[in-house]
Specification:
The protein has 13 helices and five strands. It is of the alpha/beta class. It folds into three domains: about 130 residues; about 60 residues; about 80 residues.
């Protein structure tokens, strides 16, 4: 899973995190839906789009871009997509553009074209490493900080966030969603950690407490193990494991997450996926 995908997953599951990042009251969240939108002429998609639910012209729509790699043409693309979106969909709202960087060093700006554009009040640039102490004291914003946290300190921050989620969030479903996202971020950042280490980090007796494990791992991998044991042959387990991996891919699970679930390296999982893809192409031919 790429870093931008992690951010978009968080905004999809916990949209109040985005508004906390902007310093907007949490109550605003209920007025928006997070979505994506095709730009027909360019065959492109706006992956991060917060649209007001009601046609209130006082509420802006937000285009969100997460950029963790230097891109000299980023603003060329963003402003083109913004104007094309307005032309195609004519939203009854003013626009806001939010760009999230890990730091200023990642940003690339062509002053010749965009210096005046970037001074508009409609544009917000956020640098995660520059968030103030008061901002990072917020549980939602600290969740985003975890994505950029150094590997040496990420486990401690994950533990702190898990403890705070249990102590501060009374809504059971919301708390579970946040802890699930914590698990996803840690698996992404620290793919070499075992399930037991991650469970200890998040203060769980084991990862079976998470919705992801309950819905996917128990359902599929345990079945695969039973098949392998019943057949009494290693090939039975291997084939069951491959089938399970393909099911995870079909559900949209990232390679790093799959590797963590099945206790294989990322390279091994990628090889299994490539083998399955090649086999499927062979059938079609």
């Amino acid at each position: 899973m790429k870093t931008d995908s992690l951010f978009y997953t968080i905004f999809q599951e916990l949209p109040f995190v985005f508004f906390a990042l902007l310093g907007v009251p949490e109550s605003t969240t209920s007025q928006y839906q997070f979505t994506s939108q095709e730009l027909k002429q360019l065959a492109l998609r706006l992956d991060g789009l917060f649209l007001p639910i009601e046609p209130n012209p006082e509420l802006p729509f937000y285009i969100v871009e997460v950029q963790f790699q230097p891109d000299p043409q980023l603003y060329d693309r963003l402003f083109s997509e913004l104007l094309l979106y307005i032309r195609q969909y004519r939203p009854p709202h003013p626009w806001q553009l939010v760009v999230i960087y890990p730091d200023r060093q990642t940003e690339r700006v062509n002053d010749l074209y965009f210096r005046e554009f970037l001074q508009l009040p409609n544009i917000t640039r956020i640098y995660i490493n520059e968030l103030t102490i008061s901002e990072t004291a917020s549980l939602p914003v600290k969740l985003l900080k975890l994505i950029t946290e150094p590997e040496t300190t990420a486990p401690d921050l994950a533990t702190e966030l898990a403890d705070r989620a249990r102590g501060e969030i009374s809504d059971l479903e919301l708390r579970e969603n946040l802890i699930n996202l914590l698990e996803t971020i840690i698996v992404y950042k620290l793919p070499y950690k075992s399930r037991e280490e991650i469970a200890a980090m998040l203060r769980m007796s084991n990862l079976q407490e998470t919705k992801f494990y309950q819905e996917v791992f128990t359902e599929g991998l345990q079945e695969g193990r039973q098949v392998g044991m019943q057949e009494g042959r290693q090939v039975g387990w291997q084939e069951a494991q491959k089938a399970f991996i393909q099911r995870l891919v079909a559900r949209g699970t990232g390679v790093v997450e799959i590797a963590q679930i099945v206790d294989l390296s990322v390279a091994e999982v990628e090889a299994i996926i490539a083998e399955a893809t090649q086999a499927e192409l062979g059938k079609q031919n």
